[in-house]
Amino acid sequence: MSVDTNTVKKVASLARIAISDADAEKLAPELNNILGWIEQLGEVDTSSVEPMTAVIPNTLRLREDVVTEGNARDAVLANAPQGEHGFFTVPKVVE
Amino acid sequence: MTDLTELGIAALRDGVRTGSFSAREVADAFIVKVSEAKALNAFIVETPDHAIAAAREADTARAAGEALKPLAGVPIGMKDLFATKGVQTTAASHILEGFTPVYESTVSQKLWDAGAGMLGKLNMDQFAMGSSNETSAFGNVISPWRRKGSNSALTPGGSSGGSSAAIAARLCPGATGTDTGGSIRQPAAFTGISGIKPTYGRCSRWGIVAFASSLDQAGAMAHDVRDCAILLEAMAGFDAKDATSLKPSLAGKTVGIPAEYLVEGMPPEIAALWQIGIAWVKDAGAEVIEVSLPHTKYALPAYYIIAPAEASSNLARYDGVRYGIRELPDGANLQEMYAATRAAGFGAEVKRRILIGTYVLSAGFYDAYYTQAQKVRALIARDFESAFQKCDLLLTPTAPSAAFALGEKSADPIAMYLNDVFTVPSSLAGLPAMSVPGGLDAAGLPLGLQIIGRPLDEQGVLDAALAIEQRAGFTVRPDAWW
After folding, report:
1. Cα–Cα dist B143/B148, whole Å
2. Residue B77 shares a structural domain with residue B188
3. Are B136 and B258 in the same domain?
4. Domain boundary among B235, B259, B280
5. Is the pLDDT of residue A47 over 90?
6. What ipTM did this prediction achieve?
7. Which residue from A31, A50, A93 is facing B356, i.e. has the nearest CB?
8. Percent above pLDDT 90 for chain B
9. Chain B: closest CA distance from residue A41 (Å)
């Protein structure tokens, strides 16, 4: 599997990270190097193995479906780069 | 003010520590309670002076700004089976009446050393032989409990019945007990308190009047589990004066040495330290065997799929909307704002990991990378499971090198990742693991040894690491050049 600059740009766009052509050129061999190294996992026979998603057998806890906290609008907005009238503010998305 | 005798050991200790009340106030409150509860016959001898002296010491230490001892300000009851210097000790027998020991039992001494004071010697079944406190030469202890609608006197259990009755009636917040066949637990059960008989040998028997030496074991009695733990912590420990006292050792433990951790290019000093570590755990009584963790070499590549994948998801929240910086080029739309913010806000290594994570999670590659890595992770965990069928702990170096110079590896991400070769596998398997300093390399830099344990066996990990620490005697410090 070889990553070219177009793939780097595509992945960066999926990750919502703007990159310049120069960055993509620089990143392609770096990522190829890392991906080439992790590709050794392909050697391992895992045909009879279930993927492991949690290390300790633990069932997710359920709680009562009730409001346990709320009325924290100001706290939620306290760190926002921009907020108005009790809302987060972003560039216009709907004309 | 609240009635201080309503409080348990932890609350009294903390209250004295923070100055909510003085140790003297605590001692006085319990001394009054003891003197008013003669009807229970829980005490054979009352020792208010002892409790007051300990309280005075605690209050003086606090006033002087000194650190308080673990049980400072906590007065307790002492079962009459423990020899107490200058205080009559009879084991509730007639034959020892008037016996005033000229020495202190190890357990009681440890409690006084921890800052506790003594309210008195507690009644019990004579020589601890009994389950009802009816065999005491000083009369029955009466339980504070009564059946509904009845005045008949009930047993507080035995043989530690003075201890159980005194705690249940809040004459003391905790007490020592001894258990030969249930003498801590049955009285605790009969009076609604907690009591623990530790492993035989955990508390020294030195200075405890012997009943059946292969069975006798001191333990803690208190209102709740936490208080029992606090008391037991102060009572327990190796004592050279008791031939059956347990010495912290790795006897009976098997330590596995994973063959695959002897990686190519391991500096000889690290390989040598590993061998010394093996000798240390053997010296501590452990058996050492070689084990195999065959998927070790795949741990790092699996980690560098799983960790970046999870990171790319976790770091999606840094979008310039909810917190932190926002980059909004002129005329940019929302998507462009996200991309510009994240381009300006993340450093190179973080971006690299997000990109790797996004790539391995992206459509078409997910199974080949991410699912395969999760399957390899399962195999790595399985390696540990099978190793732990043959051994209790694993001993490895912590890192394949001593500290490297800044800049030495930053140009090559994989070289940097490889430095985690010995620590990543146990993280993937979720196991407890610990590094302890073992020695220095030729350049005078510290080298660590790692102990990996079974899930939830932090105690085993700490025991083995302590055995290494005691033998390594690592005390070197860096010269202050800064």
Report:
1. 14
2. yes
3. no
4. B235
5. yes
6. 0.92
7. A31
8. 94
9. 6
Q: Which of B457, B28, B76, B476 is nearest to B255 (CA)?
A: B457
Domain shared by B128 and B277, yes or no: no
Residue A55, pLDDT score:
82
Residue A49 has pLDDT above 90, yes or no: yes
Last residue of a domain, one of B235, B258, B275: B235
- Please identify every residue of B annotated as catalytic: 79, 159, 183
Residues 6+ apart with CB under 8 A from B303: B420, B424, B427, B428
- Let me know whether B39 and B184 are in one domain: yes
CB contact under 8 A, A33 and B328: no
Which chain B residues in 180-219 lie under 8 Å from chain A, judged by CB atoms? none
CA distance B421 to A65: 44
Taking alpha carbons only, the member of B39, B30, B42, B31 closest to residue B156 is: B42
Q: What is the pLDDT of residues B334-384, one digit of tens each?
A: 999 999 999 999 999 999 999 999 999 998 999 999 999 999 999 999 999
CB within 8 Å of B481: residues ≥ 6 apart: none
Q: Give per-residue pLDDT as tens, A63-88.
A: 899 988 888 899 999 999 999 999 99
CATH code of the domain covering residue B105: 3.90.1300.10
Residues in chain A with CB shorter than 8 Å from the CB of B358 are 11, 14-15
